[in-house]
């Protein structure tokens, strides 16, 4: 048991804490009620649940300790609310376990997908798909320090700002649906950095682990070479197993790790910097 506890990553320990706090029908119901009503008082909760106040407070304090429920105000104006980012982090953790299961449960899926995805330049009609796929990556909290969700309008402006040296590519499935996007981004506006391109790659949740990222990175690298870049660079989370595997398989080398570089949902995040010289 001790060995298991030691082996836990912070993400696992956090997920376990949340699952334990939620692991009773009453507490789950409390979270649902508070989610629906936004702010609730203890008497309202006690009445809706048919619980004695002492029992209710026990459940509320377990939920508060896990960071799920927050309190504001004093005395009769004491309100209980939810911290949605905590629930999102649990969803992202479980989602990443699901992604891993899917990746390994479908041997051969990578090879199958390879022929069925077409890579083309993005156009303004792709803006809603670009926003949808990027927002999934933002919400998952496993790949980017970006926390602001994007609208199709904002992605359209972003797309227009990407000139020919900074292309945005989309991966389209056999039904014409955009399932991923990648881009070359300006690394630094100083002219001396013009030979370096920063890159991004995002695959929609439903299409991950099937080789789409692999196909997109191959196409992006070919485009970077065609434009004449000398180097591609990227920043990633060292905990992003599919991302790290993808980059390492494509010959990206780790330059270093910025420790505790970002703060996501109240937790420090390390960021690994990688590069590939395009010889
Ligand atoms: C990271 C990401 C782009 C990879 O794309 P993908 O289509 O899911 O990955 P692929 O199926 O092409 O797999 C790439 C490699 O990772 C491996 N892989 C896929 N899922 C994996 C998982 N869950 N755990 C470990 N390795 C995994 C694959 O086996 C493959 O390696 P291989 O060629 O040696 O077999 C995609 O998962 C994604 O968009 N994730 C969310 C956003 C993100 O992380 N973007 C990158 C920001 S730095």
Question: Can you tell me about this structure?
Answer:
The protein is α+β, with helices and mostly antiparallel strands and 279 residues long. The chain folds into 2 domains: 2-82, Winged helix-like DNA-binding domain superfamily/Winged helix DNA-binding domain (Arc Repressor Mutant, subunit A), CATH 1.10.10.10; 110-277, Gcn5-related N-acetyltransferase (GNAT) (Aminopeptidase, 3-Layer(aba) Sandwich). It has 11 helices and 9 strands. It has helices at 2-7, 10-22, 25-37, 42-49, 53-65, 84-105, 109-114, 127-140, 152-161, 212-227, 241-249; strands at 69-72, 79-82, 118-121, 168-172, 178-186, 196-203, 231-236, 253-264, 267-277. A 7-stranded mixed β-sheet has the order 3-4-5-6-7-9-8. Strands 1-2 form a two-stranded antiparallel ribbon. A hairpin with a 6-residue loop joins strand 1 and strand 2 (79-82). Helix 2 (10-22) crosses helix 6 and helix 8 packs across helix 9 (152-161). The site of coenzyme A has 24 residues, from helix 6, strand 6, helix 10 and helix 11. The site of coenzyme A (COA) has 24 residues, from helix 6, strand 6, helix 10 and helix 11.
Question: Brief overview, please?
Answer:
This protein is an alpha+beta fold. It contains eleven helices and nine strands.
Low-confidence stretches: 102-109
- The helix/strand class is alpha+beta
Number of domains: 2
| Most strands sheet | 7 strands, mixed
Radius of gyration: 22 Å
Question: Which distinct ligands sit in these coordinates?
Answer: coenzyme A
- Give the beta-strand count: 9
How many distinct helices? Answer: 11
At CATH level 3, the topology of the largest domain is Aminopeptidase
Indicate the CATH architecture of the largest domain.
3-Layer(aba) Sandwich
**Average pLDDT:** 89
From the spread of the alpha carbons, the general shape counts as elongated
In which order are the strands of the major sheet placed?
3-4-5-6-7-9-8
Kindly provide the name of the CATH class of the largest domain: Alpha Beta
Give the name of the CATH superfamily of the largest domain. Gcn5-related N-acetyltransferase (GNAT)
Approximate helicity band: 40-55%
Separation of termini?
A: 50 Å
Helix and strand run: HHHHHEEHHEHHEEEHEHEE
